[in-house]
Amino acid sequence: EYRHEPVSSQNEWLEATLPSEDVDLIIGHHAHVVQPVDKVGDEWVVFGLGNFLSNQSANCCVAASQDGMIATVELLENDTGQIEAVGVHYIPTWVDRGDGYIIRVADPARTDLPESTIDQMGITFDRTFDVVSSRLSEADGLTIGLGLAPGEPSVIASVVPAGDG
């Protein structure tokens, strides 16, 4: 947990699982921080999605425990009728604990939020990009985006603690 690089047990599990004809994609979780996206042969591996909703912060854990991502996989039908994963798209997210628990798209280009919030989203965006794309690039089929059209809300979820609203 709390390590951006996959640990030996993740790699061992990968080596035991990927040779199966039944496995074309692995999406991991529970590391509490984002981990890289990679390809092993033709198979996509999303090692860790980070935290989506969390009470963790730099006060107890690593600051990156407030980072997460939403990953979507592009699937195409090949010439033989089989479905193949051909790309992964991810959207960096950040758990904003300033006023409850707000899951925000980590969009540092926002201008409608307090400067400190925008600064934190920039830190999250950069940290997530550096980790997730450390093994692959857009040329490999890995793309990053904010996933929302201009003007659409950038809050994915919001939880207000009991008694606060």
Distance between the termini: 33 Å
The percent of residues in helical segments reads: 10-25%
Number of helices: 2
Succession of helices and strands? HEEEEEEHEE
* Shape field: globular
Q: How would you characterize the largest beta sheet?
A: 5 strands, mixed
Structural class estimated from helices and strands: alpha/beta
| Low-confidence regions | none
Question: Please, could you describe this protein's structure?
Answer:
With 165 residues, this protein is α/β, with parallel strands linked by helices. The chain has one domain (8-159). Helices cover 17% and strands 30% of the residues. The protein is built from 2 helices and 8 strands. The chain has helices spanning 8-17, 115-132; strands spanning 25-27, 37-40, 43-46, 67-77, 83-96, 101-105, 142-144, 155-159. Strands 4, 5, 6, 7 and 8 form a 5-stranded mixed β-sheet that branches. The model has no long low-confidence stretch (mean pLDDT 86).
Brief description of this entry?
The chain has 165 residues and is of the alpha/beta class.
Secondary structure: elements and pairs:
Layout: H1 8-17, E1 25-27, E2 37-40, E3 43-46, E4 67-77, E5 83-96, E6 101-105, H2 115-132, E7 142-144, E8 155-159
Parallel strand pairs: 1-3, 5-7
Antiparallel strand pairs: 2-3, 4-5, 5-6, 6-8
List keywords for this structure.
165 residues, alpha/beta, 5-stranded mixed beta sheet, 3-stranded mixed beta sheet, globular
